[in-house]
Every structure is written in C-alpha cells, then in structure tokens.
Amino acid sequence: MEIDQNKLKNVRKAGLYSLIPGLGQFYNKQPFKGVIFIAIFLLFVFQMAIAGIPALTGFITLGTTPRVDHSLFLLIKGSLQIIVILLFFVFYFLNIYDARRVATIWNVKGKANTTAKAILKNAWDSGFPYLLTIPAYLAMTFVIIFPVLVTLFTAFTNYDFYHIPPFKLIDWVGLKNFLNIFSLSSYRETFTSVFSWTIIWTLCATTGQIVLGILTAIVANQDFIKGRRLFRIIFLLPWAIPAFITIMSFSNIFNDSIGAINTQVIPAINHLLFTDIPAISWKTDPFWTKVALIIIQTWLGFPYIFVMVTGVLQSIPGDLYEAARIDGANFWQKFWRITLPMILFATAPVLITQYTFNFNNFSIIYLFNNGGPGSVGSGAGSTDILISWIYKLTTGTSPQYAMAAAITLMISFIVIGVSLIAFKKTNAFGNEEMM
C-alpha cells in the first residue's frame, strides 16, 4: 500500500511538541487525546501553584514557628506531594512516548486512530489489562509506598520525645540516627544484642518448624501408617486454633511457679525416669525464655509446612520410587535423592518467606513475655527482636520515633537483601518455568 506523503509525521517533531503535554497529540491529529493530556497538565500546574509549592516548602523547612507549624503534618504533606510529582513525571514521559509512537504508526500505516470513539475502542481492546491494573497500582502507591516514604523521611529527622510537634519543631539531621546506632555505646550494645538474638531466633524457630513439618508430612504419607486422615487432622490443630489464644495459653503453661510444665510435666518425668530435674525458670531466665519461644513457634508454624509438603508428596510420581526400588535404593536414599529435592524444588519460595516472616514475628515475642525478662538497654528486653524493640521505642514513656524509623529501614534492607539473594541462589521463581 502506497502511503500518502502528506500524511507522514516527523517523529522527532512529535516528541518535541509533547514537551508541552497534549501538543504532540494535536500534531498527530488526535484532538480528543490532546485535550485530555492538556487538561491533566493544567490540573497539575494548578495543583502545584495552589498546594504543591507550599507543601514542598513546608517539607524542606518542617516549619518555622512552634505551636503554629506542625512539622509532622508538613512532612506528611510533602511526602504526598513528592508522590504526586513522581506520578506526573510518569505521565509526562508516557505522553512523549505516545506522541512518538503514534507518529511512527502514521508513517508505517498511513493512518492512525483520530476520533474519540476509535481511540477509546483501541484503548479498550489493546489496553484492557492496563486499565484493570492501573487502579491497583495507584492504590498500592498511596497505601504502601506513601507510608514507607514517610518512614524513610522520618529516619532522617530528630523526631523524639524532645521534639513533639506542634510544641517543638522537628529538624532534619541527615544520617545522625543511623550513625548513633553504631557510635553511641547504649544503642550499639542494644542493637548488637537484639540483632544477634533476632538472627538466632529466625534461624532456629523457622528451621525447627520446617524440619518438623516435613518430618510429619513424610511420616503421615507412608502407606503402612493406619489412620492417616486422623493424624492429618491432629497435625492441623495448632494451625486451626488462633495463634493469639495458643501463645497466651503457652504463656501460662510455661509459668515458673504454677505452669503445667514445672508443676506436672517435669515431676512426671522425674517419677518415670527416676531423675531429679529441677523446675526451670522459663519466664525469668533469658536463656530458657528463648528456648520456650523457639519451641512454641515450632509448634505454631509446622502445620502450614505439613499441609504444603503433603500436597507436594502426593504429586510426586510413584514411578520414581518404583525405579529407585528396582535399582536397590533404600529408604534414606529415596528420601535424599527423590523426596527432599522434590519438596525443596516446589516449596523454596514459601520456605524463604517463612524466614522473613519470623524475622518480623512480633506477636509471639510480645504476647509470651513482652520481650522480657530483664533489659539489655534502650528499652529492649532480653528476648526482644528488632520489630518488638521498634514497638517499644515508639510506645514507651520516652518515644524515639526517628530512631525507630532508622531501625525499620535497616530491617527492610536486611530482609529484602537476604530474600533476593536466597531467591536467586535457589532459583526459586525460575523453577516455575521448569514445572
């Protein structure tokens, strides 16, 4: 088909016109789209003139007059304005891309959609997935990214009990909070203690529930086990009961003086085995409190692994085991060469998320013994993990909001970094293409 030379468009010129949103669309003979783009541009300019510039000014200064300016509100308004500006830049570059793309279509096909009806029909036919996902992305921006952005900026301020707006203004302090974590002896020692216990807690509790979940699933899936359905129901009980109730119950069971462990279980063991095991200080000795927490989380977490692994075991072809049996493989060889690789192959992403979940598992630490017993400084108890320490930093009698925000960012970087490395090393999502 011969293209009319009069209908050819200059792609570069279309892009240059689009430096003012909408003009490139008018150049491409799409007045409907051009009006919409210009309207969005003018709306943004109006918003910047009326509210945007004052919001950015307040964000930079965080107020100048105590009791009149509220630094926290100015920080929040500024963060919101930054998101609006970023969204506009996304629109701005899409506007330039659209103008250049449509100009290219004119040059290739000799025509393009110019009427409002044709443009809307093409948007519905070609962009239906985007029309569905754009609202979700916008909601995610304001529901997830906005709070994260506020937390990020708070970490660079001196927002604490000495600077509570509007009576006191908040100031920008740069990296001071992050440096204080490692330079001030009180914070350094507390952070080292809490962080090391968080790592130990995460590895022990998560590994325990994974090992127990896989073990129970394999045992319950053996053909020689009678009443397998009953066992599966029993193994699901810890998952069926709300964790809040279970944790509070275990808190009473492990009570030093009247708990069932010390008053019934240990005496029964001593009677049966003729031993003399003393009562254990489950809630007053930091070591035994940590042991109790790991035991409880193993109990709470293994049913989920059990259910997931049970599904994987039932999907493994029986021919693999039959071939292994013919080759003379014993039970352990079948387990190490067939069962375990298939389990890890299918569940690697979920197993990794179990570690990240327990890294921030606030409820069990708080409900069992409120992070106690004792204290390791800066408001943290001997069994507090990072997330529960952050809670105490923000709700104590001397709140340290900026420091809590800084530690929160460090937690986020640690969790995201370790998760990405683990996903890459295990090829967790690449496995999906191979299944």
From TrEMBL:
Record has Transport as a keyword: yes
Topology term for the membrane: Multi-pass membrane protein
Entry keyword set: Cell membrane, Membrane, Sugar transport, Transmembrane, Transmembrane helix, Transport
Gene Ontology terms, MF aspect: ABC-type maltose transporter activity
InterPro entries according to UniProt: MetI-like (IPR000515), MetI-like_sf (IPR035906)
Domain ABC transmembrane type-1: start-end pairs: 195-422
UniProt keyword Methyltransferase, yes or no: no
Official protein name in the record: Maltose/maltodextrin transport system permease protein
Lineage, opening ranks: Bacteria, Bacillati, Bacillota, Bacilli, Bacillales
Gene: mdxF
